[in-house]
Amino acid sequence: MKKLLYVCLCLWVGIPCALAQQEITQELQQKSIQYAALSDKIWQWAEPGYLEDKTANALIEELQAAGFQIQKGVGAIQTAFIATYGTGSPVIGILAEMDALPGLSQEAVPFRKAKFVNAYGHACGHNLFGVGSVAAAIATKNWMAKAHIKGTIRLIGTPAEEGAGGGKTYLVKEGIFKDVDAVLHWHPGDNNNASPNSSLAYRVANFSFTGLAAHASASPEKGRSALDAVEAMNYMVNLMREHISPETRIHYVIKNGGLTSNIVPDYAMVEYTIRNPTAQGLEEIWQRLLKTAEAAAHGTETKMSYEILAGLYNLLPNDILAKEMQKSLEKVGGVPYTPEEIAFAEKIRQTVNAQTLAPITSAQTVRPYTTDLAFLASTDVGDVSWVTPTAGLSTATWVPGVPAHSWQAVACNGMSIGHKGMMNAAQTIALTAQNLFKSPNLIEQAKEELYQRRGTKIFEYKSLAGDRKPPLDYRK
To answer: Where along the sequence do coiled-coil regions lie (predicted)?
Structure first.
């Protein structure tokens, strides 16, 4: 009773309460074996986007047992869910990703050994992401209940982050985040870092061309090649690269080029991905891409159509929230290795194709806080960051130098190095959430920063994927 009164007194007068923080970290450390086992189950299942049924159910069961109210199938997505504890404001959201990547099945060993041929694997560590976020939410909830804290903690289970899934974009469009005051998230990585990052806005689309089939030798004049149109488009886009900003990214792959070389192809399709630091810049590149497709169709006398598969906003950094996350991460610290883990790390680093690698000991340290960092990839967290203040971190769940989306990452995510990084993330998020509940003024400052970066207080969200519905079968 005296301990509880002391905790409440500390909160009431605004004095940093080391005792309450210590209780959160101790609870998570005591449950580390339990959470590691859960993450290993999900690592074994390795379910693809929008098909994470067992994963979602396992996370929901953990949250229900801890006293959260569950809402399943949100946003018309079977595996998306919301777990809520508490009432009123502030509402602190925590993101939990779940999906695996195709073709990266791997044993938890420091050499290439597939568990199953061409099967899915957790090469981005979402088995750790989901569980670590759930652990943070439960620890925060337990502290709130014990200290009688007003407010709401909300864990949002977000499926299908990878590829053209864009799960969070559809949840944002459905208004899932409209009453959330701040969002916290994390991601597996090869270092410990809470600096605010931006990312690239992103759009994926298929361009289809329809022509006329004919015998390629006996009557080629009667044919109109859809493949010629694809090649003409690709050629023009490659010429365009000289006249775009250096940070713009354009990638393509021909997904259908015809059936056989002695028939003029009457159908061909190419998939394009474009990226730019801003949504406005992305739209400008998109309009130029459309012109190349239209020109290719005109020049080859074919017909063109396109389908937008996915679209993501760039991340809006939030310095106010990020600084709080950095403080919490520095309290938690990095990931220390045992002699066995050092041996694992040394072996797996020999398989990484890199000129220079950060020392293994860098996993034990926290990177200094830095602003204006650019993450030259894309994430559907970007859409969330445009509607509510958002901050995230990475922890060293992978051996330093191991890249994302690799078999080496899968191996690390299924063993103790990954488990340790996951629990460091859970502690960091829980401590950050605690600080936000204790200091509502930080949330107001974070909102003001959001309005400033966004350029407006009132913002009407429009998905960069257009009116497209969740592609629930994109991994089938």
So the answer is: none
